[in-house]
Specification:
Layout: E1 2-3, E2 11-17, H1 21-32, E3 37-41, H2 48-51, E4 67-68, E5 71-72, H3 84-96, E6 101-104, E7 108-113, E8 121-125, E9 128-137, E10 144-145, E11 159-162, E12 176-180, H4 184-195, E13 200-203, E14 213-214, E15 217-218, H5 219-225, H6 233-236, H7 259-264, E16 268-270, E17 273-277, E18 280-283, H8 287-312, E19 335-336, E20 340-345, E21 349-350, E22 380-382, H9 396-412
Parallel strand pairs: 1-6, 2-3, 2-9, 3-6, 9-22, 11-20, 12-13, 12-20, 13-16
Antiparallel strand pairs: 4-5, 7-8, 8-9, 10-21, 14-15, 17-18, 18-19
Length: 419
């Protein structure tokens, strides 16, 4: 990494907003193409990997998935799962592996198209106003934690924390903990609390699950070999960008997250949380339905793997299929507020594109409007969004290809007309 500075009035060829793996990937490719640029990061490079994950976080994708332009995982555990700090150090090592021109501690608050003949973009930043021929948004798509409206109905004595800010059990007061949401964060945090001996209640969402291993190999390795991560958003439909990722864990070398087994260990499973009434959190009666759905998705993935093995003539061990270890016997009913001391909200994030101002790069629903990261505004690009081009686009596995595509477009369509 090559720390640089910007000053009020500077003109820069390309400004990359965001100093995570996506922004660094574009920087790597722009350097290779000899293109003038800077990376603006509002905090420190790749800080999110350390500052926005819990202490026992691990990747859910195998380490061999970790590959960026000119940089791949070369550690001793290609089929293992890096911890939070290991991921941070690996991506930080990427930043240090080449001379990415990075400006840390600078926030971009507004991007405008000036209409001037030579400088199409004006960026208002905490370090002053600069102009640029191109702008790349590499900030991802998950910006602001979300909370349901009824969170305000919980008594002040109950601690509320979002998964974004959860680090460990010691943050929370004594008593039971209600975790709301069963995406990757919610299920892993619920397990983390259960391991720590806490009384845990889990409000289920609609997330599917996937087995960790099947027929001798990690399921995500099977899916990669099958080309699933190369399937494009256009093929699956744009609605896919709103889908919830399958829950599984890489903890302790990787294993399934089976909510039914959590119930056998004492975790209270509830349907979707609806709100507070009569001194209790109330839920709908959908526990069985949600568990059956999650299991059906996991089994359908196994069906696809079976078909691939048979089609390709692969010699793989045969494995017995999953059988439910627990089934609900009825509606557990409301959860008295007196039984919990904290709520961990794991119900997602929303995007914040306010810094784009009136730039016409969002669709009518407020989503980035692009074709593989290229927008209708010449010189403005997105990178690192979930399902931006393929299922792999929001993951380490797909960033390199997407970054190369953007830079190829930049080189093929220069925007500056300055002498």
């Amino acid at each position: 990494m090559k720390p640089v500075e910007i000053h009020d009035g500077d003109h820069i060829g390309t400004v990359i907003v965001g100093g995570g793996q996506a922004g660094l990937a574009v920087s790597h490719e722009l350097l290779a193409a000899g293109e003038d640029h800077v990376v603006l990061e509002k905090e420190t490079v790749v800080h999110q990997w350390r500052d926005a994950r819990w202490d026992n976080f691990t990747l859910v994708t195998p380490n061999w998935h970790c590959r960026l332009p000119g940089y791949v995982y070369e550690g001793p555990r290609p089929d293992g799962f890096m911890s939070r700090d290991e991921v941070h150090d690996w991506v930080r090592g990427y930043a240090d592996s080449f001379d990415a021109p990075v400006v840390e501690g600078v926030t971009v608050t507004l991007v405008e198209q000036t209409g001037d003949e030579g400088y199409p973009f004006r960026l208002t930043t905490s370090a002053g106003t600069v102009t640029a021929d191109r702008v790349v948004s590499a900030t991802g798509g998950y910006h602001l934690p979300t909370f349901p409206g009824w969170a305000a109905d919980l008594p002040e004595g109950i601690t509320q924390i979002h998964s974004h800010d959860y680090r460990n059990s010691d943050q929370l007061p004594d008593g039971g903990v209600l975790v709301v949401g069963t995406g990757q964060s919610g299920t892993q945090i619920a397990e983390d609390l259960l391991i720590e001996g806490r009384t845990v209640h889990l409000a289920l969402g609609n997330a599917p699950r996937v087995a960790r291993f099947y027929r001798g190999m990690d399921c995500m390795t099977w899916l990669a070999r099958m080309g699933v991560y190369d399937v494009t958003a256009e093929t699956r439909g744009l609605a896919k960008r709103e889908s919830t990722n399958h829950y599984v864990t890489g903890r302790d070398g990787g294993r399934d997250l089976d909510l039914r087994s959590f119930a056998l260990r004492g975790m209270g499973l509830h349907g979707r949380a609806l709100g507070v009434a009569d001194g209790a959190v109330v839920f709908d009666d959908t526990v069985a339905e949600k568990l059956d759905y999650a299991d059906s998705v996991a089994e359908s993935i196994k069906n696809d793997i079976d078909a691939y093995i048979a089609r390709e003539g692969i010699d793989a061990p045969v494995e017995r299929r999953y059988e439910p270890v627990w089934t609900p016997t009825g509606d557990p009913g409301p959860l008295p507020l007196s039984d919990i001391g904290a709520v961990v909200w794991s119900n997602g994030f929303r995007s914040d594109w306010s810094w784009l101002g009136d730039l016409p790069v969002l669709d009518v629903e407020g989503h980035p409007a692009h074709r593989r990261g290229v927008t209708d505004v010449p010189g403005f690009y997105f990178l690192g969004l979930p399902w931006m081009h393929t299922w792999g686009s929001g993951r380490f596995l797909g960033i390199a290809e997407d970054a190369r595509h953007l830079v190829a477009d930049m080189v093929a369509h220069p925007t500056s007309v300055c002498p």
